[in-house]
Amino acid sequence: MMSFAGCGGVDMDLTHFSLFTGIGGIDLAAEWAGFKTVGQCEFADYPTRVLEKHWPDVERWKDVRSITVESVRERGIQEVTVLSAGFPCQPHSVAGERKASNDERDLWPETAERIRILKPRWFLGENVPGILSSENGRFFGGILRDLAKMGYSVGWCCYGANRVGAPHKRERIFIVAYSDSSRQQRGKNSRSIKESRKNSKKQFEGFCKTLLCDSYSIPKLQAYSGVDTVREERNSWQGTSRKHRRETSRTYWEISESPVLGVDDGISDRVDRSIALGNAVVPQQVYPILKAIADIERCGET
């Protein structure tokens, strides 16, 4: 596990727990950013086999409803830095009926309950842009209210995988929620906790102003320009030619196809693989967010 010195001089383990994991796109990006994935939850068989191959030692649940205080404690999982969830998009996709909360596949309530159970310092949600207009905006508003009631400041953004060099647009909504609860501050004195909260709060505000297209919190976030990590990552492609970006991206997908997306068991699984790829989060697309969170957790130390 990668360990970094926190603001108070205490080593910090950056941990990640994923819900609706799929084939592990967010998990891979989390590893790149320095997190250790300690838990995964995936229902479908093919993605589960992919996860078992590439994350064999990670604790895993099949049904999100089975993640309870007791089951988490029994498996030795303690504090979670980031909880990620690419909760089902079908209730909100413009390609479907858009039944939202009336769709049996709507699992936001179960996601919210897992946030209450795991009490992560950060929550990272992913969905399709259609969620913003689902139920005329009421559904997304409900997500924001749920997170605010749990003590989180919330920001969100919408951008495509093409912004980080992928050869396709694939726009996604990313919801980033932050809690300055002292639960993760054990071992620090009161002054250190206060300074850590102050620094983290300022950096989260800057994080929202830098990357996210809107923000919502109680109290309202104030402008701060102290975090440019995400912008730097996002802009790293701007000095290169379009041809170079296409070639670099294509090379990455070709290299990563076998170790990340494959199951070397002699089974074709073409349909299941196509579905899994269609549902997957592009690692490079979410990496800048996780990198910024990791930098905030390290309190600006390099």
Account of the 3D structure:
- Helices cover 40% and strands 16% of the residues.
- It is an alpha/beta fold.
- It has one domain (3-297): 3-Layer(aba) Sandwich (Rossmann fold), CATH 3.40.50.150.
- The chain has an eight-stranded mixed β-sheet, sandwiched between helices.
- A hairpin with a 5-residue loop joins β1 (3-5) and β2.
- Residues 1-6, 182-188 and 213-261 have low confidence and may be disordered.
CATH homologous superfamily designation: Vaccinia Virus protein VP39
Separation of the first and last Cα atoms: 17 Å
If you average the pLDDT, what whole number results?
A: 71
User: How many helical stretches?
Assistant: 10
CATH class: Alpha Beta
Portion of residues in beta strands equals 15-25%
CATH fold-level name:
Rossmann fold
Protein name: DNA (cytosine-5-)-methyltransferase
GO molecular function, one term: DNA (cytosine-5-)-methyltransferase activity
Active site: 89
InterPro entries: C5-MTase (IPR050750), C5_MeTfrase (IPR001525), SAM-dependent_MTases_sf (IPR029063)
